Amino acid sequence: MPSSNNVRKVTSENYPTDAGREGELIFRTVYCLAGCSKPILRLWISSMEDDAIRSGFQQLKSGRDYDGLHQSALCRAKADWLVGINATRYFSLTYGRTLNIGRVMSPTRSGDYLIPDLSLTEQPQAPLGKYGRMRKDYLKEHRPVLWNSLLLSERLYPHLREIDEAANNRLEQMMPELMKSAGVTEALKASDPMKWVGLMNTLKAQAEETILTELVFS
Description:
This protein is mainly alpha-helical and 218 residues long. It contains eight helices and five strands. The protein is 60% helix and 7% strand.
């Protein structure tokens, strides 16, 4: 569209693009690139019937009435680029497979419908241990980006199992050392069982505090 700024007979620009955000954005982009600055009038119709078109031209509205619609469309387009395209490339390269992130997903046809391909392969159903469950709750509530990344890449369950096993192994390694330094022995267990149980609970809580900080809540 050549600029009409220097054409005296042209007093305004009428634009009949689609009645919606995308249509608004298309016209405004072309209008700006062409360097136009004359007033604009909006033709807003959703039917291509002759009567509807004639009625629309009789009710043209100032383009200023649709500035908010244009800003909305512009924000969505930028978000699709910043979040959708870049995040999709980042996660796909990071995890070595195509991971669609954002508003737009590649659909598959099912009869008369287009359905986003969001299915995951079947995951193991073996129960998680204490630390695996705690890690799961922590990720879901406090690390949603990592949670979604692991979930979509189908690495969530292996990750939780790995954390659970690592935490239990660490506990088994730490307890003998803590018991030795605190003087918790089999002799104490035989002579004063209550004291032995109290010390063991304290040492386990101390070990778990380290494990939770370094493995589960990290």
